[in-house]
Amino acid sequence: MKFTINRTGFTNELANVLRAISSKTTIPILTGVKLVVTDDQLVLTGSNSDITIQSTLAASEGQLGLVVEEPGAIVLQARLFNEIVKKLPAETVTLEVKTGFLTTITSGPAEFKINGQDANNYPKLPELESDKTVQLAPDLLREVIDQTRIAVSKQESRPILTGIHVLLAQDQLTAIATDSHRLAQRKVTLPAPVAAAADVVIPGVSMTELARMIPDQKDPIDLLIAENQVLFKFGHTLFYSRLLEGKYPDTSRLIPETSETDLTIDANVLLAAISRASLLSHQGRNNVVKLTIDPTQELVKISGDSADVGNVEEELQFDAITGQELAISFNPDYMGDALKSFGEVKVKLAFTSPLRPFTLVPVDDQANFVQLITPVRTF
């Protein structure tokens, strides 16, 4: 096995594959990166059993400068190999395996010899065939993930809640996440109806890594859902993730359909005020901020206090308030995450009572995106 490639391009692709490799795996060979060289391409694979990332580099892509002299395959210790390649002195790197698994890496005057492993012992990738396939714009997919993953549970006591619930039906994709204290739901209209409906839960960790990898490109990303795996295809990258087993709880009944008090306000204005109030709430034991709405006085106020430090109170500029007078307390970190997910837009907050969950929706797209937060009892 022998090939030469542009070091910078190779380093970038290697870094993507390394996202799936963990040093804590119980399968020793998975601490390595698999390299398979054919006559016209180099395939890099990294996996931790839950996530697998495969990148295919073609010799026809001139900017990569891939020249194959001899096909073959090897598994190299991923972290060490990556550090070596990053620190090599020349613009090109040559990798050669002659006999056994001893691998020679040369670049300019530098030469490394490291031991590899037999690529035949590396787990095989699943071959997915599915009629549950959709295409999504890269920026839209990244947005859907970022808007929902904030509500994914970090508690392993309920494993199903550590994932994002993805539903495909007709021409709509729905993504939902909840940790029992808050909920995020985003709906997207697909360019074409799906051939078959799907109801799966993708680990939040997988979706977070995927969002970091999604390139700034116009070409759509293919999403394939199989029995226990999901596959995302973009550029020359394949991103596999296992699916979580179990039934996701029915969250449709959690979102109130009516409200007693409504507030329309700029998301950034409310976010900034909550951030200031949380400076004190974070010093206390409860970490609670209070929102007071009085339609008769046309007053909206944020307040927070810590028995040991002091208190803060701030009146807010708003667009509209309707309904009943209300005072409600909540976790400022949950509220801050929800507001950040909207960006620079006007949001509508709808409340039913001081102890019932309330919703936040963007004023210009109320049907497709909702954040729900459970208030904190303070008495």
From TrEMBL:
Residues 136-250 form the DNA polymerase III beta sliding clamp central domain. The keyword Translocase does not apply. Residues 253-377 form the DNA polymerase III beta sliding clamp C-terminal domain. One of its GO terms (cellular component) is DNA polymerase III complex. Keywords: Cytoplasm, DNA replication, DNA-binding, DNA-directed DNA polymerase, Nucleotidyltransferase, Transferase. One of its GO terms (biological process) is DNA strand elongation involved in DNA replication. PANTHER family: BETA SLIDING CLAMP (PTHR30478:SF0), DNA POLYMERASE III SUBUNIT BETA (PTHR30478). InterPro entries: DNA_clamp_sf, DNA_polIII_beta, DNA_polIII_beta_C, DNA_polIII_beta_cen, DNA_polIII_beta_N. SMART domains: POL3Bc (SM00480). It is found in: Cytoplasm. Residues 1-126 form the DNA polymerase III beta sliding clamp N-terminal domain. Belongs to the beta sliding clamp family. Forms a ring-shaped head-to-tail homodimer around DNA. Its main location: cytoplasm. It comes from Limosilactobacillus ingluviei. This is Beta sliding clamp. The keyword Disulfide bond does not apply. GO terms for molecular function: 3'-5' exonuclease activity; DNA binding; DNA-directed DNA polymerase activity. It holds the Pfam family DNA_pol3_beta_3. Confers DNA tethering and processivity to DNA polymerases and other proteins. Acts as a clamp, forming a ring around DNA (a reaction catalyzed by the clamp-loading complex) which diffuses in an ATP-independent manner freely and bidirectionally along dsDNA. Initially characterized for its ability to contact the catalytic subunit of DNA polymerase III (Pol III), a complex, multichain enzyme responsible for most of the replicative synthesis in bacteria; Pol III exhibits 3'-5' exonuclease proofreading activity. It comes from the Bacteria.
